[in-house]
UniProtKB/TrEMBL annotation:
Protein name: Large ribosomal subunit protein bL31B
Example GO BP: translation
One GO cellular component, as annotated: ribosome
The keyword Ribonucleoprotein is assigned to this record: yes
Keywords associated with the record: Ribonucleoprotein, Ribosomal protein
Organism of origin: Fulvivirga sediminis
NCBIfam families from the UniProt entry: L31, PRK01678.1
GO molecular function, one term: structural constituent of ribosome
PANTHER family to which the protein is assigned, alphabetical: 50S RIBOSOMAL PROTEIN L31, CHLOROPLASTIC, LARGE RIBOSOMAL SUBUNIT PROTEIN BL31A
Length: 81
């Protein structure tokens, strides 16, 4: 494998903003924000809107998630003329 072409693979904390759930995993994503985890170490913080803690498929709850107006945008774009 070539050296210096792969992104850094490190531990990061993902924060689900809709359910206030945080989990530690490894990723290549980077962030300027950091958070202190339970073990006292600071990790980069990645904010996400949907995770397994808030997704209707995993929770079994019918939750309406439309933060960007995606349905309206789709209807406006593909509306019959």
């Amino acid at each position: 494998m070539k050296n210096d072409i792969h992104p850094e693979y490190r531990e990061v904390v993902f924060y689900d903003t809709s359910s206030d759930y945080k989990f530690l995993t490894k990723s290549t994503m980077s962030s300027s924000e950091t958070i202190k985890w339970d073990d006292g170490t600071e990790y980069p913080l990645i904010k996400v809107e949907v995770s397994s803690a808030s997704h209707p498929f995993y929770t079994g709850k019918k939750l309406f998630v439309d933060t960007a107006g995606r349905v309206e945008k789709f209807n406006k774009k593909y509306k019959k003329k």
